[in-house]
Request: fold
Amino acid sequence: MSGTAARLVVLVPAVAALLGLLVARRTDPRAPRALAIGASVVAMVLAVAEVIGVHGSSGARTVSSIPALAAGELRIPLQLQATTATATIALVVAVVGWAVQVFAGWYLRADDRYGIFAATVSLFTAGMLLVVQSADLVLTLVGWEVMGWCSYLLIGHWSRKESARRAALKAFLVTRLADVGFVLGVVVLAAGAGSTAYRQVVQAWAGAGCNDAGACIGPSATLRNAAMALLVIGILGKSGMVPFHDWLPDAMEGPTPASALIHAATMVAAGTFVLGQLFDVLVVADGARWLLAVSTAVTMVYAAVLAFGQSDLKRLLAYSTLSQVALMLSALAVAPADEGPGAGVLHLYSHAFFKALLFLAIGWLSVTVGGTAAATMRGGVRGHLFIRPAMFVGLLSLAGVPPLVGFVSKEHVLSAAEAGIADGQARAWVVLLAGLLTVVLTAAYCMRAWVVLDDLGAADVERHDTDTATLGVRVVVSVLAVLTVVGGLVVVTPLLHLGGHIAWLVALLSVLLIVGAGLAVRSVAAGEDPAIRVVGARMPSFDAGFGVDRLYVALVARPVLALAHVVVFLDREVVDAYVRGAAAAARLGGLGGQRAHRSEVAASGLAWVVAGVVAVALAGVALW
Reply:
């Protein structure tokens, strides 16, 4: 049953996307809405069936295959898999996909391109589910690129705005650039293993291979590091890590449901699961792990600092995604081999719930108050039966307050770093210190967001469309809030293989840091936005990401354009010069012959013919 469910859970949203495009142009949005929501519900049911099926078979791996391909010596089995981990994350993706489709049906109810949006969300969900269920690098790459294309479409959905077009193009260019590394890494791993199946790739690259005579030959450590480093570069780009981070906050130009999908359970978190599948190879690629550890440590602190000073609360959530994804990836950079990737996958699981909750709640609130700027949302949650507790629970979980799901997963990540220190990894110190500093900063910007949203001293907010939210929207927000509260119980089930445990000393320290940061921000607030008090006139610099766009232009765009101008000059003035010169010479020769032909007379022509015949005859006699 789990094998069939693994196939169908990918197929259903993909078919819904194709059918959705056929009905997208209809004036009545009910058909695309019913199709998108119905398919998401079916995908959720299938994901539940897969979880039950895998668990019922004691978590045994069941592989669902379609006919394999052969490319010379390379085998491409095109396999899907169903394990407890893949089934659990597939269920998380399906739940978030359902929540986004229901919310988008209300949020974009007046959008004339809603049908296109819903179909794209279905395709996006299918791409992520393919990455999760894949047991083959080629299928992973297909799902990976489908998500990249869909992110471009969703971010630029409101393409009538120049800012949306620019943000979509920026996301596309940055992620495509990083994907060059991902594709090259896949090629190297597959070529070395002779197969694209994860199982064969791990067997070939994780250790020595022995033949029947007992001779063991290990893979090249340098080549393994290079392949995994290339793969990590692709994942850093897709996840928005430094130095590829600047596209993700700009992606807020897309509709809020698209932001919830991209940030919560799809593209930016996909790399964590891919590296989790290849963890046995990553753990012996020390150079790639250092690259991952340094990038994630820098990103989690840098993004958390930027989140605190944002003037727009939706962009605050975007930067918090950068910081939290860095946290989950950092667990893979430092976890000992015997603990596995469980801590990072657990944070992927928990982050999906509370981040989807926060984005959808902020989207709902933005409809009622007319925007997402902090000044507009000031005091906005007062009096909201659903939004107020939802934002409260979501921000507490994001900050890592026990016993919410964010606390459980964050402490497993810090525990993995502590285990890495015990394992003798110097990079684990980098990750642990950055993680503890991030705990403080996260608590600070979460407290700042709550002070703004629940400011009792603010004037009454002018509200719009306060009672238009459908029952489905209220159910979605309630379900995500409940999962944010009780989702941490997954650690007492066999659904995720967690090698470590909560390090209670680190947990106590992080809780104290959260309390201290919260009290500090609350005391600084004194009836106003604490970011204005702390950041002040530097807030535009925070909004601009400390000028990273200008840095990109100076270090990347201008040199590339200058090189392009040089290439054009060489092509036109050097390479094409020979072609133009040959053409000019041929033309001049033709003109000269034409003029000579016109100026000659019959007698002289005959004389030249006789002279030619005589010359040929003499040459023949001489040769004879």
Observations:
- Strands lie at 62-65, 69-71, 74-76, 79-82, 209-210, 216-217.
- The first strand starts at residue 62 and ends at 65.
- The chain has a mean pLDDT of 87.
- The first helix runs from residue 2 to 23.
